[in-house]
Amino acid sequence: MALLKADSLSLGYDNQAILTDLSFEINKGDYLCIVGENGSGKTTLMKTLLGLQKPYGGTITFGDGLTKKDIGYLPQQTLVQRDFPAAVREIVLSGCQAKTGLRPFYNKAEKKLAEDNMEKMGITHLKDRCYRELSGGQQQRVLLARALCATGKLLLLDEPVAGLDPKVTAEMYALIESLNKEGISIIMISHDISAALKYASHILHIGETIYFGTKKDYLESSLGRNFLGEEV
After folding, report:
1. Please, what are the domains in the chain?
2. pLDDT tens digits for 117-142?
3. CB 222: neighbour CB atoms within 10 A?
């Protein structure tokens, strides 16, 4: 069974639908990139998958033991969030909140999970630093470590390299690719079409026309060729 399956979704906000009849699925090990024009509903789709807003119609089904609480999420950062005055360790640990239930504290297993994910992201040496003092690339690694504390199955990434320089961008994509190769499924919104085509196994194109399928089929479709022609 698919990790996540969307069937005939209708999405929008302010009582206005911006996407209708949207269907796709993601299985273990998939790397799905969501592309499309600005304002086409990519971030709205992310919020709907996370349960932050309800679809106007259609269904979202989870499988393989996955629930909304088991999804790791790396959102687009606002200026206020970049200036958050907390230690790196605290932010990474907060990714375990869904696991604590009614407990007002983190247990040993959760603290070890946070330590392991900081090590995996190469930020252990930063764990006592204030988040607001870090570079953009370091902050993204912190948020990715936090997202990993919530999941071992599915990561949702909303423009994870926005505002990063080319070197740090390449490092971030390499980290995400390594997580995917370890078996974590990826759903990523990206305006970086070249990266989407390099790393993705599947493409979801949303807009006036909707496409879902393999990267290979997308590249051979008229929609894919036309969209890429506009980007270059």
Report:
1. 4-39+49-189 (3.40.50.300)
2. 999 999 999 999 999 999 999 999 99
3. 9
